[in-house]
Amino acid sequence: MYKARYTESLIMLLIFATILFVVTAVVPASADPQSVIKDLDQAYTQIAQKVSPSVVRVSSTKNVSVASDEGLEPFLRQFPFFGDQFPKQPRHPQSVETLMGSGFIVSSDGLIMTNYHVVKDMKEITVTLPGKRDYKAKLIGADPESDIALIKIDAKNLPAVTWGDSSKLRVGEIVVAIGNPFGLSGTVTNGIVSATGRTNMGIIGYEDFIQTDAPINPGNSGGPLVNIKGEVVGINTAIATQSGGYMGVGFTIPSDSAKLVMDELLKYGKVQHGLLGINIQDLTEPLAKSFGRTDLNGALVSQVVPDSPAAKAGIKTGDIILDYNDKPVSGASQLKNLVGQTRPGSTAKLTIWRDKKTADVSVAIAERTTKTAQAEVPAAKASNELGITVDKVPPQLTSELGLKQGVGLVIKNETPDGRGAAMGLRTGDVILEVDNRPITSLSEFDKDVMEAKQDGVIRFMIQRGAATIFLAETF
């Protein structure tokens, strides 16, 4: 206990020292540093007074029939990447567990936003307003893919938050997190925006996180992140931790994304995510070079689902999507988010790179459902250096993978420190093409590899399980 208190005191001391250093460094010599700090102190106080009345505690209960580690912080269980699990405690059969998180009022008639994982599969939801007033809440709608849920209580004239524009956030900007860490209601912590546009975290389906060092702990899930004006710019969702508590890295869903989800839930009762019907991956330098690109922007199409919108529009494996509705595509995750935010039934314009030329393609966006979710996700990564053994694909594997008879070579093994292993090839992969040429024999493969070495770059299209992906390397 004393160690924990000492650590907390040290963290607060470091935060204050940092603020003092920044203030004295950027404030003109003629200004009074103490006066500036007093102004900052006043700003924090005003933020707390403005936003705290709109922040609620969300308690949800469920029946648990076996021993479990439920009961403290949902996101640490749901996303085990984020820290050690809390110690398991004995449970009686059919005992009732209470989970605690945060939320914030978005309308004066009792509409509240929180994280989906805070209320997922819950038997009963209780909202506690500042002043310890308890209300039973009902679930209005939720979107597991974005981890957003809307709940409602029967109350009037409640103080609703003011939304901010998360797209205008700058790295280094001061932000404040408000919530109920460890059930401690109305806790206010401060920090800065550490980064924006964090993706590939593996937390939720659609990721575009704000990263912050504002202290966030178990129980903060669903609470607001606000800017210096007291405007909500995000909803606190997860932390990266090895201890189960704050370690300086928190992740927040941007307010712009949260508002889009809220509007969809209120209007349609669910969020309809768009679907292209492709698998995509980020470009690496070797891949970009093999396709005649000089930069790494865009999303490489590694697979097109038959009869999908992309297939009907003529999108092909090996195309690189550069723009989506006139917005430049930086990578696979960004394209996935853009497609997911597109209303099914609408038409999207894509600018693609094919055969070293650009072309525009129009695609009728479909709806992403459980059955059609062959979605836009980064497929694989490629790296450096080829000691592999290949063989003809056995008939049984050809049938299992749906391949054409006689096409492709299966990798039987690879040398751990060889170029093939380093570039991402694995035992069991089926090499379908080398530099856009289908492979049907061992001699053909050897010839194509030698030619690729002379050209300075080699690109494989491989079948890995149900997916096709590209890998490339320079020589």
Automatic annotation (TrEMBL):
<dbReference type="InterPro" id="IPR009003">
    <property type="entry name" value="Peptidase_S1_PA"/>
</dbReference>
<feature type="binding site">
    <location>
        <position position="117"/>
    </location>
    <ligand>
        <name>substrate</name>
    </ligand>
</feature>
<keyword id="KW-0378">Hydrolase</keyword>
<feature type="domain" description="PDZ">
    <location>
        <begin position="376"/>
        <end position="466"/>
    </location>
</feature>
<feature type="active site" description="Charge relay system">
    <location>
        <position position="221"/>
    </location>
</feature>
<feature type="active site" description="Charge relay system">
    <location>
        <position position="117"/>
    </location>
</feature>
<protein>
    <submittedName>
        <fullName>Periplasmic serine protease, Do/DeqQ family</fullName>
    </submittedName>
</protein>
<dbReference type="GO" id="GO:0006508">
    <property type="term" value="P:proteolysis"/>
</dbReference>
<keyword id="KW-0732">Signal</keyword>
<dbReference type="InterPro" id="IPR001478">
    <property type="entry name" value="PDZ"/>
</dbReference>
<dbReference type="InterPro" id="IPR001940">
    <property type="entry name" value="Peptidase_S1C"/>
</dbReference>
<feature type="domain" description="PDZ">
    <location>
        <begin position="265"/>
        <end position="356"/>
    </location>
</feature>
<dbReference type="InterPro" id="IPR036034">
    <property type="entry name" value="PDZ_sf"/>
</dbReference>
<dbReference type="GO" id="GO:0004252">
    <property type="term" value="F:serine-type endopeptidase activity"/>
</dbReference>
<keyword id="KW-0720">Serine protease</keyword>
<feature type="active site" description="Charge relay system">
    <location>
        <position position="147"/>
    </location>
</feature>
<feature type="binding site">
    <location>
        <position position="147"/>
    </location>
    <ligand>
        <name>substrate</name>
    </ligand>
</feature>
<dbReference type="Pfam" id="PF13365">
    <property type="entry name" value="Trypsin_2"/>
</dbReference>
<dbReference type="InterPro" id="IPR051201">
    <property type="entry name" value="Chloro_Bact_Ser_Proteases"/>
</dbReference>
<keyword id="KW-0645">Protease</keyword>
<dbReference type="Pfam" id="PF13180">
    <property type="entry name" value="PDZ_2"/>
</dbReference>
<dbReference type="InterPro" id="IPR011782">
    <property type="entry name" value="Pept_S1C_Do"/>
</dbReference>
<feature type="binding site">
    <location>
        <begin position="219"/>
        <end position="221"/>
    </location>
    <ligand>
        <name>substrate</name>
    </ligand>
</feature>
<keyword id="KW-0677">Repeat</keyword>
